[in-house]
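User: Can you write out an input/output pair for a complex, sequences first and structure second?

Assistant: Here is one pair. Inputs:
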Amino acid sequence: MSGKLYGVGVGPGAPDLITLRAWRLITGAQVIAYPAPDSGQSFARSIVAGCLRKDQIEIPIVVPMRVERFPAAQVYDEASENIVAHLDAGRDVIVLCEGDPFFYGSFMYVYERLSDKYDCEVVPGVSSIMTGAAVSGIPLAARNDVLTILPGPLPDDELTERINATDALVIMKVGRHLKRIRDLLNELNLLDKAIYLERVSLGEQRTMPLADMTDESAPYFSMITIYKGAEPWIDTAKMNVTNHD
Amino acid sequence: MSGKLYGVGVGPGAPDLITLRAWRLITGAQVIAYPAPDSGQSFARSIVAGCLRKDQIEIPIVVPMRVERFPAAQVYDEASENIVAHLDAGRDVIVLCEGDPFFYGSFMYVYERLSDKYDCEVVPGVSSIMTGAAVSGIPLAARNDVLTILPGPLPDDELTERINATDALVIMKVGRHLKRIRDLLNELNLLDKAIYLERVSLGEQRTMPLADMTDESAPYFSMITIYKGAEPWIDTAKMNVTNHD
């Protein structure tokens, strides 16, 4: 009998923001796969490093970190073959995913290759967007607000139209688009409502009004949030600022 | 010294989809508050019932369950006074919130009243939207998709415009708007891509193509998702259907 494939969201970064279900699956796993950069540590693995045992088989899925470029299909083809060997041998395989597996998550590239042939379960995780709201003290959305999630690489005209049309928004994958997006929000008179967030929930987290974030670019795991709502208690200027740089 | 106020997301419903942080805070708490209906059990409390002890002080925040009506400010004024008495006595107070506190969460009504005067921490939770994607096997968003979160009570013309303009969407708070929204999606030729989800992650969860959900109305904790993406592996017709009715 084949093993089962699990896509497990491990949350935004803090080890105690994984779920009890993720913890149970990871501590009990025989085989654990995770995305890893070509140099340096796997972020997903680092979140759960405290749960791992030496007798577990680890499968790093080494994804070249070229910015904004979809990683070669070959990487996921090879990783999937590796995972399949374990599934066929009757071993369950846990694939770790930063945040949530089905919210812009890398697990989808494994899922699309294997979910037709193997029993598969997705374990949702705490997303960086909810964590960003929690650490900044400013909600994502309330009551009948419309919330729009926008990838930062979208062109200016599309961003402009969608930003103007919504009550609240999160711009994901800010990265090298930081300066362009900041300039755009300034033109749209929204800079004073925009929050910059980086590596939320981690020790090196940075949160600040976007106007104060003057770098040209940002890490991949960064985002910008805007809540346009008229709630009187929401005051961007009073937000908690953390900056460990 | 005053106690600290915590807004703790307890996730979509399954007791093991709370975070380790939530578990630690709840099991260690002296005082726990939660929204409760005027008759029947508190959903938020039921999620963590297995963690509670008899010596903990519980504060039900009884919110009359009139559909779509914002509960009287008086309920939260009184609950906040009750919470303040404990904070002033130096006791921390945990306020439970279904899903995530800052994603359409009821905790905001306590937060807006007390966050200026007391030390406050928000603990993010697993959201029903990520859980809905996990249980249906269909992603929320990938790559450069735009994802729009829409409250079901919005009028038809606004829903139409926003549904047409996005790559992926979740309609929250479907409730008594079910039939209207289903008719609208049918007119927009999107019914075959729409998923209906109810009480995700719980034993009584229901997930099915919206076309198969012929009821006139739905519970408050229900949603509709549409992923328009052209990923060949996404096939609404093949989705797992659970229906415990």
